[in-house]
Specification:
The complex is a heterodimer.
Chain A (H helix, E strand, L loop, with lengths): L1 H12 L3 E7 L2 E6 L4 H10 L5 E9 L7 E9 L4 E9 L5 E3 L8 H12 L2 E3 L38
Parallel strand pairs in A: 2-5, 6-7
Antiparallel strand pairs in A: 1-2, 3-4, 4-5
Chain B lengths: L12 H15 L4 E5 L3 H9 L21 E5 L7 H10 L5 E5 H6 L20 E3 L6 H16 L4 H6 L9
Parallel strand pairs in B: 1-2, 2-3, 3-4
Helix pairs in contact in B: 1-5, 2-5
Classes of the chains: A alpha/beta, B alpha/beta.
Amino acid sequence: MSKQVVEKLKAEFGALVLAEAEHRGETTVTVERTEIVKICTFLRDACGYNLLSDLCGVDYLGRTPRFEVVYNMYSISAKTRLRVKVLVEEADASVDTVSGVWSTANWHERECWDLMGISFNNHPDLRRILMPADWQGHPLRKDYPVQGPDREPYQGRLS
Amino acid sequence: MGVEQTKTLGNGFVTTSLDKLVNWSRAKSLWPMTFGLACCAIEMMAAGAARFDLDRMGVLFRASPRQADVIIIAGTVTKKMLPVIKTVYEQMPEPKYVIAMGACASSGGVFDTYSVVQGIDEELPVDVYVPGCPPRPEGLLYGLMKLQEKIMKERNSFGAAIGVGEVVNEA
């Protein structure tokens, strides 16, 4: 079932689909970030993925591109899932917002901005959601100290 | 502390009996402000429920800080919540007490991270620490009884109540 969706996606947006993978029944598609809104609109309208289960950022420190934004979507009527990944450079860490496609993306993108520093273009309300409003830094990046920037780093055992 | 003598109403029999009366009435009817933040709140609810009844200790949970005289900080205090806690504490009228319930409120608990305040005693003057993660309801009950003992040992409470000097608290 998901194979057909991937074929439809490739037929519509040929050059933008960079990779696809399937592992234990879960399909993942990696796409270019330039046309993500069009791709998500197509997936929602033509392929029936009407629920965005999750939108998160991933930090692969030491690799270029450093970040990824992962969209997990679910089709309520067909009961299938799909994962779409977008590669994000560190120098230009921004993606177009999909809160126009699924409204739940609004807060998920705020969390991604707050904790990872990936900004979203045309987002209606991009501000911190979990950290205090005047916090400096993006805590869930891999190079952020766990104790916080104003304390001594942890000297003990890690486990 | 010690340059000028703290003004008290005296140590006579009548004065100390009046102090004991005021202390007894304050200790035996502690009204906490419900401030359950995380898991310790469940144990606080359990302590207030039927099996480990807190109501028989005179403890009535009040939702408004203006009507409370002790605040039980039950749970992890994040840096984002700290201004709210300070506002609530400042809204409580004197005399007021603070119980830090659980490991997170006492010292940050397991969460030695950027967003957790390492112990509410960074900001508020804590009277009783109740250790545990979470402390059993009997533990919270013991902490409340310890606070009651602390209140019973205060001196010059009657004097402070009528405006002569301050409450002397030898802790």
